[in-house]
Amino acid sequence: MKILVTGGAGYIGSVMVPELLGAGHKVIVIDNFMYRQPSLAAHCWNPNLEIVFGDIRNLELVARHAKSVDAVIPLAAIVGAPACDRDPKLATSVNFDATVALFELLGKEQLVLMPTTNSAYGSGDQDNYCDETSPLHPLSHYAVEKVRVEERLMERENSVSFRLATVFGLSPRMRLDLLVNNFVWRALKDRFVVIFEGHYRRNYIHVRDVVGAFLLALSNIDDFRGEIFNVGLSSANISKIGLCEAIASQIPEFVFLEAQMKSDPDQRNYIVSNVKIEAKGFSPKFSLDIGIAELIKGLPMFDVPQFANF
Predict the structure, then answer these.
(1) d(CA 273, CA 275)
(2) 310, 177 in Cβ contact below 8 A?
(3) Quick check: pTM over 0.70?
């Protein structure tokens, strides 16, 4: 296939694009390289990769490249609650306005596979349980915009939405603001972290397993078309305390304290079912423990001011 990946040099994209190329697809990446990341440099030799320096809000540019592709994977976004709260107008213009405008440029036959977020569940039901039919209660600007985009996405005939769990793992365009990545980085650097409402649970997924879900859908599109899927690691529906304990099992010097005087501004607290996508053959390859070991090995290569979204 010929695939357009917006934001293809970002945290997920710089892992996904090489895998798409390896599967034989032709890939066009549109990215403004706002973090000055050389994350696709090792793949510029590949004639099946085209890199376009540009902003997805430039609809003329996007239309020029979108018209010839079979599928679009819209990764370009201002990602995460802190980054969106810092500049809400920018976040809306990129995460909602430009993304919906992209949908409107596409023909009905063109496929869209898009990451959304399971943070839209808020706190789930009375048992904090969520599946794809659960009501959405987005708590952050980022989650609200993702819900709005998903509504518009699923109005198309040829679309798939992946509600991603909190992603972790190494990427050429590293992010240290994601919870697992951040806690391991703090464990390595400071040897301690203070947490709030440590019993709050959320679900996690390795960045390479996220890519695996997209590749699975591309290879079996009739099983995925028109559907919404949670994408997470079912063994990693754990609390922040549980996450810290998993890190401490590999970094014994790591100390974590739960503070009682403050509440966490991020009030997400849920257990997510991934049964629907598992029934389609999705089987994550990277456990939380494998991801923590990977981060311990690789994070010393990265410097926080360059590799965080804050």
Answers:
(1) 6
(2) yes
(3) yes
